[in-house]
Every structure is written in C-alpha cells, then in structure tokens.
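Handover notes (outgoing to incoming on-call)

Open items:
1. DNA polymerase III subunit epsilon: sequence verified, structure written out, both below. Nothing else pending on this one.
2. Nothing else urgent.
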Amino acid sequence: MYAIVDIETTGGHASANGITEIAICIHDGSKIIKRFESLVNPQRDIPVYIRALTGITNEMVQNAPLFKDIAHEVFQLLHGKIFVAHNVNFDFSFLRYHLSQAGYELQCNKLCTVRLGRKIMPGFPSYSLGKLCTQLGIINNSRHRAMGDAEATATLFSLYLERDGTGHITKALKQNSREQVLPPNLPKADIEQLPYTPGVYYFHDSKGKVIYVGKAKNIRKRVCSHFTGNNPGPQRQEFLRNIHNITYQICGTELIAFVLEAVEIKRLWPKYNRSLKRFEHAYALYDYVDQRGYVRLAIDKHRKYQQPLYTCNTLYEGYGLVNRLIEEFELCPKLCFIQKNNAVCNSIHAENCACCGGMSADDYNAKVNAAVDSLNEALPTFAIRDEGRTHDEHSCILIEKGRFYGMGYISHYFNADNVQQLKNHLTPYPGNDYIRNMVAGYASRYPERKLIFS
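DNA polymerase III subunit epsilon structure tokens:
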C-alpha cells in the first residue's frame, strides 16, 4: 500500500517553517482508494511569494486546524505505508519533523517519483512535476495545491507501475538499496563509482559548478553519510536538491586529502563550504623602517596582501614572541611597540637606547636583522613521506622554511635527500597557516615519516 503525499509550506526547511496544506492519497497499486486533505494553520506568516505561488493566504489558514490537531490522523494514514512523493525527501522531512513535535515517530520506506521517472521513463528534458505532467498529458487543475499535486503524482505513479518492466520500483524498495535517501537529482551511478579510499570529493550543481568540497578517509562512506537521516535544519533541503553530480580525486593518505581539501576550498570557494573559508590567522609580525632609519617590529592584524615575518592566532601570542626577541637580542621595547608610555625606555640600554638616539640606526638594525634571522632559522624544512595511491609510489608533502610548498607523488625508489630535486617532483600549491600547522602536527605524531633536510 502506498501513501502518495504532497504538502505546501511557508519555506524550504522544516525546523523554521510550517505546513499550510497537506494531501494524502492512499494507493493500492492500481488506483486511489482513499483521500485526505486539509489546510493547516502554520502559526506564522505565509511569505508573499508563496501566497502568489500557491494561492493560500493567511486568511485561508487562520481558522484551519493546527498540525498537532491532525497529527494522529496523518500518522495513521502514513504508518505502515510506502511514502511516495515528488522529491520525497522534502515532504518526508517536513512531516517527520512536525509529527515528532506532536509525539509521533514516522518510519517509512520511501519512493521518489523524480528518481523513478529518470529510470522508468528516461529522456525527458525535465522531471519537475509540472513539466512531466504536461509531457505525459496528465491534467492538473490545481497546480501548487496539495491535493492537485498529490493526485497528479498518483496518476504519474500509476504510469510508473505499468511501465516498470525491469523492476526499478522493487529494486528501490529493497532493504539494502538506500536509493531513496539520495538527493533527487543525483544519479545512483555517481555513488556506485566512488572508491573506498582516502580522497577529496566534489558536489556539482546542474551547471557543473562545484558547490561543496569534502575530504574523506573513505570517499564512498563519507559521501553517503551526507544523505543519511532527515535533518530539518536550514539549507539542508536546498543543498540536497542542488547536488546533480559527484566527482573525486583519490589521495594516498588522509593527510593529503585534508591538505587538498583546504587548497580546493580556497581555489573554488564553494557555496556550501564555510569553516575553511573563514580560517585566517588574526595577527602577524611585520617590520618597516621609520623616518629616522630604524627598523621597527610590530604586531598588527593580519593583512591579506602583505608578507608577514611570522603569524599567530592571538595578540597575546604575538606580544609573547616580540618580548622574547626583545630580551634575547636586546631590542628596544618602544621601537617594538611594547612600551607605549612616555617614560624612560625600560630596555637594558635605558638612556643609550635606540629610541633616544643613543644607538645608531646601523647598530640597532643589525640587532633586529639578527632577531629576524633567528625566526627564519627556527622555521623548519622537512617532508612527510607516506603511503601512495598505489603500491609502487609514495605521497610526499614539503614544508620549506616553515611554509607549505606543495605535495605530490614520488616513486617508491626515489631518494628524497635533496630539497631541490624533490621539488621537481611535487606540485606547488598556495599554502596557509592552517595547512602548515596540520602538517606539523602530523609530523610530531608520526616522526618516522618525517624527512629532515640539512
């Protein structure tokens, strides 16, 4: 027995929107045997564009029942049935969420008439309900109203049942199929071709544009995890509807995948990636020459287009670094913007300090240069040599003077004892401190995979 469902709502995600109308057609496999429909008071304003689309106004639902008042009847109609809808995950997520708010837990097998249409009746230019009905001659006199769309979907589903000579509906309902949890526009073949290896995967929209980049220890398992559950949170339904294709890059290790993901997010700026877009160190150490010719060191906010001497996450960390350089190299705290009052300089040189003119610019700058050189010398050059994509290669990531240089794959027999020779085999990538810190942390956990160059 099938429950063919259509709902109208105030918006695109369940947790922040209400249902304004619901229709359920109980289908026995050949015809509709029972109908249920009701307007619903969503207890919130219906946006003007939705009023224009559906014709359902605030006045129409003002005296309609709340969803909790019809929840028991809706649950009884759906319970034990196969839940069928056009773009099933949208309708199912709304009803499951609002039923749970009323104390009912909906568990149903699902069928999506968008996905079934692509398999049973391939070749149509569009599988939207309106265009599909027009192409097949299905009359719907109440488009964008729940019962009109539910009955049109029921007629469409009857056609599928008649023409499903290869058993696509039966296959979709098998316990291990899980096809109905996939986004409506994503071919199952895209999932079936995913490998069980570390790598980076890309979700593409209908125009081929990358809208999400992810990394994984196991690409297929991680991709499928995006589609499990029925999270009613904001943007999830929009996100799923926009996934039309998946591509991927196999990586030798999870670390390579992590680094490549960070690089690709910066390169492609996908719509649905957020966390790594925002990552930037907040502060940095800069140097400049003042009007008297003295080199000044200063901690300031990180500037995107200015090369810093050093980067740090917090102002406290930056001041700690500068104080260490002042003490170790006898620098002036006033010229380093640590001492900001008008009192006598509290350096060991006091009245003979550079800030008072007691030390020449050449002599003081030599101290600053020595401090900067110490920072550069402290920045390590090393590589991580690890597993490759095949048995006859290794993956390799190079950090040169504390900065991420690039990565790639080298022969199992390649002797990586020379930085310049190694760089010829690697692909340079733009780096950032997130990547540098990630690679450094990995090196500290797995020192046996670290190559240090003299």
